[in-house]
Amino acid sequence: MPQGQPLVVPDDGLTTRARRNAPVLAVHTGPGKGKSTAAFGMALRAWNQGFSIAVFQFVKSAKWKVGEEAVFRELGRLHDEHGAGGPVEWHKMGSGWSWTRKHGTDDDHAAAAADGWAEIQRRLAAEQHDFYVLDEFTYPLKWGWVDVDEVVDTLTNRPGRQHVVITGRDAPQGLIDAADLVTEMTKVKHPMDVGRKGQKGIEW
């Protein structure tokens, strides 16, 4: 795909503009580092275009310091106070989904994941955001906490122009088949292979 040009133009009756404005479902999977990082990079571009951003983190501990969260919260504040970019929401399962007014960690992680997915379904139906990051969402799918077929049906039939990026290892085949963009991160080398620990600015 040199210089962003498609190799084949489909005979689908759509205009170039219509294809360019089609919503994208992206999946970042595989064992390598960078799945969430790439998703947040896309979200940064979306924010710069004025898109409404919603991030849902499904597995990471609420206590885990995520550098991107701090940045996006500042970007959300910048939008609220000065009108730059787009609005931002960031929700973490481990701290209790923010809309539920619950605090602390829910012992029933499966129920919490199902609650998160139900809220995402509601927002997709209402076309509440332009760009969604479902971070580490493949794990609730893999563990059977959320039904894969239901997710695929909801995402395939979502209304409007809502972009969705899903991250995590072992993405189910049904989700891969439904996605427009699938990237598999493959580890070639990693500092941890030789005993080095995670570093500020690299892992968080």
Question: Any overview of this molecule?
Answer:
The protein has 204 residues and is of the alpha/beta class. The protein is built from 7 helices and 6 strands. The chain has a 6-stranded parallel β-sheet. The longest helix has 17 residues. It starts with 15 loop residues before the first helix and ends in a 20-residue tail after the last strand. The mean pLDDT is 89.
Number of helices: 7
What Rg, in angstroms, do the CA atoms define?
18 Å
Number of DSSP-assigned strands: 6
Mean pLDDT rating: 89
Taking the sheet with the most strands, its summary is: 6 strands, parallel
Class of secondary structure makeup:
alpha/beta
Distance between the termini: 32 Å
